[in-house]
Amino acid sequence: MPRVEVKPYKIIAPGAKAKAKVFVVSSRYRDIASGSLSEGRFFDPMDERDHSQVAVIGQDVRRKLFGYGPAVGKLFKVNDVWLEVIGILAAQSPGGGDAAVSSNAAEIWIPVSTAMRKFDRDPLDAPVDELIVTVKEGISTRKTADLMKPLLDRLHGGADDYEIVVPEALLEQRRQTQRIFNIVMGSIAGISLLVGGIGIMNIMLASVLERTREIGVRRAIGATRRDIRSQFVIESFAISVIGGVCGIVIGIVLARLVAAYAGWPTVITFWSLILSTGVSVAVGLVSGIYPAARAAELDPIEALRYE
Questions:
Q1: Residue ranges per domain, the chain?
Q2: Burial state string for 146-169 with b = 16 or more CB within 10 A and e = fewer than 16
Q3: Environment class of residue 290 by beta-carbon count within 10 Å: exposed (0-12), middle (13-18) or buried (19+)?
Q4: Is the pTM of this model over 0.70?
Q5: Helices (DSSP H) in 84-166: which residue ranges?
Q6: Is the model's pLDDT at 238 over the cut of 60?
Q7: Which of 9, 194, 216, 286 is most enclosed, with most CB atoms within 10 A?
Q8: The pLDDT of residue 299
């Protein structure tokens, strides 16, 4: 399935402009490429037959030209050709199995017949910029690529001016990158938890030292070691819960700001909130056990004498 890129020198709408890649594709291109739509429709054979001046645009192009308002049915101009938006490409999933692995957010797709009639093209440019090949289920894409290479070498006269991209390899590379990213972020989170736990422990030890006389008074009027231990464990628990809730709120706000500013979709699940809260509480409890034990082991008489 061929795909040809048009080099636009301007992409404008009333009161706005954008930079994007413009691709000329067939109406069947959506069947094999990443062409799911969030709004509108894809162009059909009738659009190709009538040379309709229509286009399907990505999410970034939509935001830059039309903001967050309605875009389907709006007009914009590529070079000297006015096009009507009939569809908006949906944001791609990083783990999807689509033929086109790269993002389509900054792309504009127009019908082949429209481009051939309406757009100027340098005769020295290659007639096809990209070929997308589909294989039957169960056939290795890597072996197919190995079989295609000698054919392309002959067609290109031995010149190394083309690249074979195997989505399976790209997706595996992306998964590897994601695994490394998860390890790095997990290590950072682990170090942060360790530092936070040490901080809570130091705070509680300082609190025990400052309240030594108070502990002696409580022991003198009948408080048991268990009461003293419970008091400091509860305080440590309260510190960790408050810190965890504040961290969750800040994280949600930052995620929303990043999503609004950069256009990256963010997902916050209920279970991730429960897990983060549980980890925070666990760190607080573990960090408070030693200071609580130190407080409980204080001798009441020595504590009352402490200044």
A1: 2-130, 135-165, 169-305
A2: eeeeeeeeeeeeeeeeeeeeebee
A3: middle
A4: no
A5: 112-118, 141-155
A6: yes
A7: 216
A8: 76
